[in-house]
Amino acid sequence: MKHPPPELAPLAQAYLHELHVLRQLSPHTITAYQHDLRQLQTLAQDDGIDLLSVSNAHIRRWAGRLHAKNRSPRSIARTLSAWRGWFEWLGRQSTAKKDASKINLSANPVADVKAPKRNQVLPKALSVEQAIALVQQAQREAFENKDLDSIRDAALIELLYSSGLRLSELLGIDASISHDRKQESAGWLDWEASEVTVLGKGGKRRSIPVGVPAMVALQAWLSFRQAMPLKLQSRALFLSAKGLRLAPRTVQTRLRTLAIRAGLPTHVHPHMLRHSFASHVLQSSHDLRAVQEMLGHASIASTQIYTALDFQHLAQAYDLAHPRAKPSKA
Q1: Are 95 and 135 in the same domain?
Q2: Domain check: are 198 and 306 in the same one?
Q3: Is the pTM of this model over 0.90?
Q4: Angle at 137 between CA 134 and CA 143, to 5 degrees
Q5: Residue tagged active-site, from 60, 67, 84, 271
Q6: What phi-psi label fits residue 160: left (phi over 0), alpha (psi between -120 and 50 degrees) or beta?
């Protein structure tokens, strides 16, 4: 019989509440932190250690256990980051008079503990030719079928590739901006300025340019959407046939099927279009800061991974074009 997970300690619950209310982290991130803190609590209980008495040696031993259980370096790094954040928060609480009697934490026990080194996994991006083939396939089906799914998909895919949006950001866009406190828009299009404004990670808003082909496709979809029966109307820009805000799974399935019909030799998912956007803009502009801003990365280190894709692209071009790139045949 499977036992329910242990209840989190009050201080861990207070930390998660602060992450949710003050830092406005996403529900997905909060759930991940909750899982990691519950794991820390379980490891401490198994060794008979009070959570407020955890030492650097304990953390190192527990990190070793996670590694022995074949946890990936990325997963261990995320877990250590969650633990480190909580102990940092505890340290700040210990400086407050009201909590000084409850918490006695001289140093963060996770401060200098690192996860095992991991191999850098490059994001998968389409080539320029593949990306164009995909959007052209979507436009061709919209022209031929003239139905809701095809016209909507053409606009949706053009916008994904044109502006490098995350799927959640894309699906949060409303057809028109609303300042109603109960239904304030997470994202909207500025049709005159050809810009899209979205709510990204950490509750941060950003505006990204939208290319001309994408704006044309979006205008076609908006006209079709406005002609839909009244009962199907919704504030969301991208709707299902039932008039509801489009679900992530629907976009994933439609994009995968469209890529197959376009003859692409790889599994295509929405985030791959974000990677493709970043890679292709960087190849053309070499402006890492601009790409960082458009992607909404808090740290430029997250954006720098695309420089490896850019070098990979240049290396492939060199191999194909330079007469001395390949070894001569004997």
Answers
A1: no
A2: yes
A3: no
A4: 145
A5: 271
A6: alpha
Domain holding 71, by residue range, is 10-100
Q: In this structure, is residue 325 part of a structural domain? A: no
Is residue 289 a part of any domain in this protein? yes
106 in a domain, yes or no? no
Tally Cβ neighbours within 10 Å of residue 247: 11
From the candidates 152, 274, 275, 280, which is the catalytic residue?
274
DSSP codes joined into one string, 239-261: B-TTSSBPPHHHHHHHHHHHHHH
Among residues 20, 67, 201, 245, the one annotated as catalytic is 201
274 carries an active-site annotation? yes
pLDDT tens digits along 60-119 = 999 888 888 888 888 888 999 999 999 999 888 766 545 444 555 668 899 888 877 766
188 secondary structure, DSSP code:
E
Q: Give the closest residue to 159 by CA, choosing from 216, 199, 201.
A: 216
Give the chain's end-to-end CA distance (angstroms, integer): 68
Is residue 157 located within the same domain as residue 84? no
Q: For residue 191, give the 3-state DSSP assignment.
A: coil
Mean pLDDT for all residues in the chain: 85
